[in-house]
Design a protein that fits this description.
By secondary structure, this protein is α/β, with parallel strands linked by helices. It has helices at 2-14, 29-46, 67-76, 91-99, 148-159, 175-184, 231-239; strands spanning 18-24, 26-27, 51-55, 80-82, 120-124, 130-137, 166-171, 191-195, 205-206, 212-214, 219-222, 254-264, 270-278. Helix 3 (67-76) links the parallel strand 3 (51-55) and strand 4 (80-82). Helix 2 runs parallel beside helix 3.
Length: 279
């Protein structure tokens, strides 16, 4: 009954030229990919989703993206992908995806500037509506990144030439840097969504000027893990730092973390935002 009422509610919103956009938090390893098949079809139906984006930088064993994980996540129903600091952990595979013109972006301000791929793409939903997807990386506690705020200004200006619906995946470590980016772009983009720290925050909201914001969308991966990675290896890195514990993605029961945004097609501003956690 609740899902029926929810779908009716979102159907009424459709009458006002809106878009329901789903953004899925960092998909980590096999468990994360399995979670997409387990939860995504029902979530897309329940929320009447028009377009789906996921961060896929941890999809291949917890580090990087490959052709096989890209295609698997696409079959699960993801239409576009963002990346992060592990974008090129499987460098040859990632470069091949960009060369083939697949549906993904990497942080625009990632250094060196000669890296393949783009940080901004203009894509079309099945309805034909244009959506700009931007990917940036933070500088606090991170390496190999140029000024994300300067890059954001330039990319948003370029995106505005095509559409008012603009999504930013800000892949950053510091919550303060993410919040600062949210207010910096408030009223200029549809959403500023934090990724990278893998722990879903409880602050999904619409900022004063109309931009949807969430400090971290969370992780789609093994429930019993340390940020999606094997518990024993992760704990070992803290308690036995002198030993070389090899990271690998955890397996087993998974959680699905995402955020659903209702975006006005004309203004590009958010009408509603709702965080999603399923396990």
């Amino acid at each position: 009954m609740f899902n029926t009422v929810r779908r009716f509610f979102y159907h009424l919103a459709d009458l006002g030229d809106n878009m329901n956009i789903l953004f899925i938090g960092d998909v980590c390893g096999r468990s994360g990919r399995d979670a997409l098949f387990q939860y995504l079809p029902d979530v897309k139906y329940e929320y009447d989703v028009d377009f789906t984006v996921a961060n896929g930088e941890n999809s291949a064993g917890g580090l990087g993206i490959t052709r096989s994980t890209y295609e698997e996540m696409t079959r699960a129903g993801v239409e576009f992908f963002t990346l992060g600091n592990h974008a090129f952990s499987k460098s040859a595979e990632a470069e091949a995806l960009f060369k083939a013109g697949e549906n993904l972006v990497r942080p625009a301000n990632m250094l060196p500037v000669s890296l393949p791929g783009k940080g901004l793409e203009i894509v079309r939903a099945s309805s034909g509506v244009k959506i700009a997807v931007i990917n940036l990386i933070g500088r606090a506690f991170m390496e190999n990144a140029d000024d994300p705020f300067k890059a954001a200004e330039a990319l948003v200006s370029k995106a505005k030439e095509h559409t008012n619906i603009i999504l930013l995946d800000f892949h950053a470590e510091a919550t303060s840097e993410k919040e600062a980016m949210g207010f910096f772009l408030d009223g200029k983009v549809s959403a500023v969504l934090g990724t990278h720290t893998h722990i879903q925050t409880a602050d999904a909201k619409i900022l004063p000027k109309g931009t949807a914001y969430m400090t971290d969308v969370g992780m789609t991966g093994a429930e019993y893990s340390v940020l999606g990675m094997d518990v024993e290896a992760a704990v070992g890195r803290f308690v036995e730092p002198e030993k070389k514990h090899r990271f690998k993605s955890a397996e087993g029961k998974a959680r699905f973390c995402a955020v659903l945004m209702d975006i006005d097609e004309k203004s590009g501003m958010a009408r509603r935002v709702e965080r999603i956690w399923k396990s």
